[in-house]
Design a protein that fits this description.
It is a single chain. By secondary structure, the protein is an all-alpha fold. It is built from 20 helices and no strands.
């Protein structure tokens, strides 16, 4: 069941308003910021520092990130500094996003958007549009997600904000991925990668490498898929970006499964699961479990068992064991996905569960799981959404053409 992997593939990148162009990233960046904190005075510079620390914790320890974000919020209120308050809300939202608490994340991003709009801060508004778009994407509202990403991109192009443009291209590529337009997803990710390489945004580069690996995997170009995913793993290990590393290990696990290496696939999914549990990434945990359920389901198939075991009794026992493991993993994934509202992968997890129940002879449970998956299917995948996304992309292309004409006229 190939598509349970979708949300584990893309690690959306959220930007922080302050110091977003810093050269150091990951743990090295965080260590240098924490050293500055004891020397800082109770002024706007400390707000910037706390906000930066908060943001940098999102990929390492989001709960700590929220604590530092709360300190930044408190000091901003004390100083009556609205720009700092907007940045604090953005960082807190980023950490809630990393914890898969989407309702809290969008609450803080909208608070930040309200302040930035009142200040007419174009850069801050673009950041908020991008972040809100990601939340809509994670809850499968792709037309709304694309709308926000496009609004952000229009502002960032006007400001010539290359970091922002790279993030927007990455996320627009991801929306195309979710709609199965893999070649367009590759096109947008390559645009983003070129910018990220130019400005030396290593986290962005790792994200693009991982995304390209997955897109090529969907096109069955396994050679390119492995090259790009391996690049992402190497870079995220250097950056100590645990969320990104878990995403890449899970993607590599899916690739190994596609190539028939099921033991290697399970090993990689377990490594990713361990990391996601460490950072309490519920979305990642659910998708690791769903992917493992998928692999166990494959291992329960007669065509696989007949190759591995000569004894009919051994095949029967192994089939039952693997089906039980598939069902248990899928049930756990379904519970988490329901709680955090990720409908796209919930559809596939329920569909997987239905197949496993059916193979085990639990026909009533199989029917119930299938009916639940069908009720989600219409809300996530439909022609109207695809048409709406197509209209938005055409409008964006027309805007770019109009701008080029205006420049030529000038």
């Amino acid at each position: 069941m190939k598509n349970i992997r979708i949300l584990i593939i893309i690690l959306f990148v959220l930007v922080n308003i302050s110091k977003s162009k810093a050269q150091k990233q990951g743990q090295a960046r965080l260590d240098s910021l924490l050293k500055e904190l004891p020397k800082s005075k109770e002024d706007t510079n400390k707000v910037k520092l706390l906000t930066d620390i908060s943001y940098n914790y999102n990929s390492i320890d989001p709960k700590k990130g929220i604590l530092y974000g709360n300190q930044s919020e408190e000091l901003s209120n004390k100083l009556n500094w609205k720009l700092g308050l907007a940045a604090s809300y953005n960082s807190i939202g980023t950490n809630y996003h990393a914890l898969s608490n989407y309702s809290k994340a969008i609450e803080y991003f909208k608070k930040s958007l309200e302040i930035n709009s009142s200040l007419k801060d174009s850069n801050g508004i673009a950041v908020c549009y991008n972040n809100i778009g990601q939340l809509y994407s994670f809850t499968s509202n792709y037309p709304e997600a694309l709308n926000y990403f496009t609004l952000a991109l229009n502002i960032n192009e006007h400001l010539n904000n290359k970091l922002g443009m790279a993030l927007n291209y990455t996320n627009i590529g991801s929306v195309n991925y979710f709609q199965y337009n893999y070649r367009k997803a590759i096109e947008y990710n390559k645009k983003a990668l070129a910018i990220n390489e130019e400005i030396k945004n290593y986290i962005g580069m790792a994200n693009n490498y991982g995304g390209l690996g997955v897109f090529y995997m969907q096109l069955s170009d396994y050679s390119n898929a492995k090259i790009f995913i391996s690049k992402a793993i190497d870079l995220n290990r250097k950056l100590n970006n645990l969320n990104g590393l878990a995403v890449n290990l899970g993607a590599l696990g899916n690739l190994e499964s596609d190539m028939g290496n099921y033991d290697g696939s399970l090993k990689l999914h377990n490594q990713a699961l361990e990391i996601n549990r460490k950072v309490n990434n519920l979305s990642g945990i659910a998708n690791n479990l769903g992917n493992m359920g998928d692999v166990y389901l494959i291992l329960s198939q007669d065509s696989i068992l007949n190759k591995k075991y000569e004894s009919r009794e051994k095949r029967s026992i192994t089939k039952e064991v693997n089906l039980n493991k598939s069902i248990n993993s899928s049930i756990e994934a379904v519970k988490i996905l329901k709680n955090i509202g990720e409908r796209h992968n919930l559809f596939y997890a329920l569909k997987n569960l239905s197949v496993a129940y059916k193979l085990r002879g639990d026909y009533k449970d199989a029917y119930n799981a299938l009916e639940k998956s069908k009720s989600i299917q219409d809300s996530v995948f439909n022609i109207e959404k695809a048409n709406e996304i197509s209209k938005l992309e055409n409008a964006r292309e027309n805007l770019v053409k109009d701008r080029k004409i205006a420049i030529l006229n000038e």
